[in-house]
């Protein structure tokens, strides 16, 4: 009889999200997302260029710079945000390749905290929970606030350890 401890569901589904992320060819970050209803896996997706279009590893990143006014403790600061616009985010691909009916009442496990755009899309998708591992501090405050307003459970797996074979070096 085996004495091996079985993984909890959060670890199981986040492990799958990290495995899915290994399909990404983005040089900046590999992101994976999975759609789960109850204990049933309904879909997976990762970040990358549209199907049939050269990705960042082939054509280079298309970096867009934006500036955002952030107020912290009454102090205003302009924060520069850089993002690649060649890549469709994992959460966006997940929404593109799953059906609305499947998303109703479901959870999304994603390796990284959703950016503002993805959070907006997820908020309108019918899901009731987002579980993530790595934080995205640039958008955390406003995304957390919106999820509270929508009544969507939004939680980070603090002590989670991704499978070793899924880890990559993230460039800035």
TrEMBL record:
Annotated active site: 91
InterPro entries: APOBEC/CMP_deaminase_Zn-bd, CMP_dCMP_dom, Cytidine_deaminase-like, dCMP_deaminase, dCMP_deaminase-rel, Deoxycytidylate_deaminase_dom
Chain positions recorded as Zn(2+) binding sites: 89, 115, 118
Residue ranges of domain CMP/dCMP-type deaminase in the record: 8-157
Keyword Zinc: yes
Keyword vocabulary terms for this entry: Hydrolase, Metal-binding, Zinc
The protein's name: Cytidine/deoxycytidylate deaminase family protein
């Amino acid at each position: 009889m085996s004495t091996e401890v079985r993984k909890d569901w959060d670890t199981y589904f986040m492990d799958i999200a990290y495995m899915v992320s290994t399909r990404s060819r983005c040089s900046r970050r590999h992101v994976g997302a999975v759609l789960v209803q109850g204990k049933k896996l309904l879909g997976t997706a990762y970040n990358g260029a549209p199907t049939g279009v050269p990705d960042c590893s082939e054509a280079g990143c298309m970096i867009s710079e934006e500036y955002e006014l952030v107020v912290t403790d009454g102090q205003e600061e302009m924060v520069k945000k850089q993002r690649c616009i060649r890549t469709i985010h994992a959460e966006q691909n997940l929404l593109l390749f799953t059906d609305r009916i499947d998303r109703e009442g479901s959870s999304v496990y994603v390796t990284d905290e959703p950016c503002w755009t993805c959070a907006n899309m997820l908020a309108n998708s019918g899901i009731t929970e987002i579980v993530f591992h790595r934080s995205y501090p640039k958008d955390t405050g406003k995304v957390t606030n919106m999820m509270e307003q929508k009544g969507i459970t939004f939680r980070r797996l603090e002590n989670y350890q991704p499978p070793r074979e899924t880890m990559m070096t993230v460039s800035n």
